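Regression test case RT-17, inverse folding.

Input:
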């Protein structure tokens, strides 16, 4: 298998492989182009996101500065706001539902690295998709780790580090993020 095939199969892969690096280099260029669009030209920003991302619903906006590892692995539903300095390391897929808000300085990452120093010296990585449900509010300075599934109607408090899946209708916070309380879903009545 090529390193790119290993990555896509969820296996450990070498992240400085030329095919893998080409994805990142393309993303660097596209992020630079996106971030260069006039701050108030929302139509041009939206059109570029539709070109850059894997899929993009209606009323999607991401503030400057936006960074990603691929772009084509990001799938965003309708009515999305990504605030300043959003980074999505989408070497694998990131699925974001409808009516999601993400606070500033947030990191969503699908990639991790081995625990052994030899494998890290060999530039090995492993990637797992991230799933974010509908009606989710992610506060500022949140980190979401690889392989996480976040349910519907979830609030993640500012500064949280999400290391485990989050059930529907839950407010979480802390490092690592833990359930604080159940929250009402006034849409499902």
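Golden output:
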């Amino acid at each position: 298998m090529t390193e790119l095939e290993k990555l896509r199969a969820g296996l450990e892969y070498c992240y400085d492989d030329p095919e893998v690096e080409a994805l990142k280099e393309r993303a660097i260029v596209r992020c630079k182009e996106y971030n260069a669009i006039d701050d108030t030209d929302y139509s041009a920003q939206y059109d570029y996101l539709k070109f850059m991302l894997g899929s993009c619903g209606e009323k999607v906006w991401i503030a400057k500065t936006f960074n990603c590892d691929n772009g084509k692995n990001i799938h965003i539903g309708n009515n999305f706001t990504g605030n300043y300095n959003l980074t999505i390391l989408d070497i694998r897929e990131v699925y974001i539902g409808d009516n999601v808000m993400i606070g500033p300085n947030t990191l969503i990452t699908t990639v991790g690295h081995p625990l052994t120093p030899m494998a890290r010296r060999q530039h090995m990585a492993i990637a797992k998709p991230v799933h974010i449900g509908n009606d989710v509010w992610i506060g500022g300075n949140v980190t979401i780790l690889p392989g996480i599934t976040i349910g519907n109607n979830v609030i993640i408090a500012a500064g949280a580090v999400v290391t485990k899946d989050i059930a529907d209708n839950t407010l979480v916070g802390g490092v690592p993020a833990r359930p604080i309380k159940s929250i009402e879903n006034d849409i499902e009545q």
